[in-house]
């Protein structure tokens, strides 16, 4: 909370004993006056006896001081003081003659009467006064000025936590953290609730048969690989899911877009529509409230989706909003395994409503080498991972989950399931001489996040479960596509 400003102190800092001396002189002067003048004086209101600070707009800030200390003195008592803002106030009867020299609740609490001048209960922040009910935001927490003149702030764990950013950057964790304006003001709960959105597949899917790969036991793979270099122009940029917990649809569309581009040898380079999945793949799926990647792959195989240009992203989760807008188009079979859209693009500027499909997705083993080989031969893969509180603040480097929230209350530690696109790997020599292996992954939090929308994460250690469930797929590309779609 803001420390009380100097100006507020000035309103109450009288230097009590000196003030009392002055009062004494005034009293003696009064006694020396002719009797009728004295009578007139005495009949004057208490208001006039006060030093008139209130007339200059200076008021007590309000609060319970005498009450808290239970310290009402009945005589003049310089020892009867209570800390008030950054000075002291008095709870003694001498207070009758001033407003601000006594504690704000002196009149009410000690004398049981209304204060002579209503105490304006204001809250102070950055030297400014705010009335009861005023609010301000401190990151993700709303602070409200209560009737007692105190700011009262909510106590949520925020998505961007400055302490944790500093702790990551001070610690030797191999990655850097920073503030993100798109996350500032959100609670950690909201981050988990709105920014992820992949439901962990049930055990039956998790245990789905792994692809058997023909790999020499001592096959040598390159130290560095980046799909964007091998397949230039076919690897799509990281997406931005906004506050839509639909990473299941974003990562699926992202991997399928790259795979179709690669498998058509660049004849088609569609950026597939996550919105098409969010709105139309609704069986057992919850749009922007989360969904399963196996369901998304089923839909891509059986129904197919159009491009993002045709069916642009419009969903953003808001409290109480439906998980996604209604589905604007279906697809129907045209025979020979091909499908076509049943409606025009929901975006009037786009006329190309071709449907793109995939073959059945296949699960890879969790072996680092097999994932690498698949990535290198066939293109980017989809990976499910657990996102922890510190990941949101990732700015660059090789991510590992850190214990920076370990000493904080339990509500500062949260995690949720997410899915991303792996596009490469590498190794980096650390200052201590060790070699750190990493994956390169595209997230769906926009290109301003991380390393231009990408992040690197420790490889070979199943960091955040990233090697637990990895999926590949083939685009369904026919001979005719090699000519038809080429622009
Ligand atoms: C202080 O206020 C009380 C209550 O109004 C009154 O009884 C008392 O005489 C006052 N004392 C002085 C010194 O004005
Ligand atoms: C973080 O970013 C927000 C928005 O850009 C800004 O208002 C806030 O002051 C920043 N916080 C810190 C601690 O730098």
TrEMBL record:
Q: Does the keyword Cell inner membrane apply?
A: no
Give the superkingdom in one word: Eukaryota
Q: Name one GO biological process term.
A: proteolysis
Q: Which PANTHER family match?
A: CYSTEINE PROTEASE FAMILY C1-RELATED
Pfam families (UniProt xref): Peptidase_C1
Q: What keywords sit in the KW lines?
A: Disulfide bond, Secreted, Signal
Provide the coiled-coil residue spans.
Answer: none
In the record, the note on similarity to other proteins reads: Belongs to the peptidase C1 family.
SUPFAM superfamilies, per database record: Cysteine proteinases, PMP inhibitors
> Predominant location of this chain?
secreted
Query: What name does UniProt use for this protein?
Result: Tubulointerstitial nephritis antigen-like
Q: Where is the SMB domain?
A: 68-116
The record's subcellular locations are: Secreted
Q: Where is this region: Disordered?
A: 314-356
User: Under the GO molecular function aspect, what terms does this record hold?
Assistant: cysteine-type peptidase activity; peptidase inhibitor activity
Signal sequence residues: 1-39
Gene Ontology cellular-component terms for this entry are: extracellular region
């Amino acid at each position: 909370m803001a420390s009380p400003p100097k100006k507020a102190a000035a309103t109450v800092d009288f230097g009590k004993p000196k003030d009392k001396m002055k009062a004494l002189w005034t009293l003696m002067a009064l006694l020396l006056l002719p009797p009728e003048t004295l009578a007139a004086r005495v009949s004057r209101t208490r208001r006039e006896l006060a030093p008139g600070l209130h007339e200059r707009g200076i008021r007590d800030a309000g609060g319970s001081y005498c009450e808290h200390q239970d310290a009402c003195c009945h005589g003049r008592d310089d020892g009867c003081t209570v800390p008030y803002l950054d000075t002291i106030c008095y709870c003694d009867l001498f207070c009758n003659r001033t407003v601000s020299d006594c504690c704000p609740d002196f009149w009410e609490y000690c004398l049981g009467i209304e204060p002579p001048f209503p105490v304006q209960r204001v809250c102070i922040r950055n030297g400014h006064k705010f009335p009861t009910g005023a609010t301000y935001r401190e990151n993700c927490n709303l602070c409200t000025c209560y009737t007692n003149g105190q700011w009262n702030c909510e106590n949520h764990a925020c998505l961007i936590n400055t302490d944790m950013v500093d702790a990551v950057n001070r610690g030797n964790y191999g990655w850097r953290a920073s503030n993100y304006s798109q996350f500032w003001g959100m609670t950690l709960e909201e981050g988990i609730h709105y920014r992820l959105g992949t439901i962990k597949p049930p055990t039956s899917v998790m245990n789905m048969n792994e692809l058997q790969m023909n790999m020499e036991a001592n096959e040598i793979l390159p130290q560095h690989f980046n799909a964007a270099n091998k397949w230039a122009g076919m690897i799509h940029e990281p997406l931005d899911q906004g506050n839509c917990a639909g990473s299941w649809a974003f990562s699926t569309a992202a991997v399928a877009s790259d795979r179709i581009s690669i498998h058509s040898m660049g004849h088609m380079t569609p950026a597939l529509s996550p919105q098409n999945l969010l709105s139309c793949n609704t069986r057992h799926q919850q749009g922007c409230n989360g969904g399963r990647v196996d369901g998304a792959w089923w839909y891509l195989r059986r129904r197919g989706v159009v491009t993002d240009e045709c069916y642009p992203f419009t969903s953003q989760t808001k409290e109480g909003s439906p998980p996604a807008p209604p589905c604007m188009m279906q697809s129907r079979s045209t025979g020979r395994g091909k499908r076509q859209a049943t409606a025009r693009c929901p975006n009037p500027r786009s006329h190309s409503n071709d449907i793109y499909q995939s073959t059945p997705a296949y699960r890879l083993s969790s072996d680092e080498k097999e994932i690498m080989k698949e990535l290198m031969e066939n293109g980017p893969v989809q990976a499910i991972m657990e996102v922890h509180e510190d990941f949101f603040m990732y700015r660059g480097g090789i991510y590992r989950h850190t214990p920076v929230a370990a000493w904080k209350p339990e509500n500062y530690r949260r995690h949720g399931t997410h899915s991303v696109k792996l596009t490469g790997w590498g190794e980096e020599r650390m200052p201590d001489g060790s070699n750190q292996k990493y994956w390169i992954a595209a997230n769906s939090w926009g290109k301003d996040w991380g390393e231009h929308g990408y992040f690197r994460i420790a490889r070979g250690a199943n960091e955040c479960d990233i090697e637990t469930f990895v999926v590949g797929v083939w685009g369904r590309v026919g001979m005719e596509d090699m000519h038809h779609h080429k622009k």
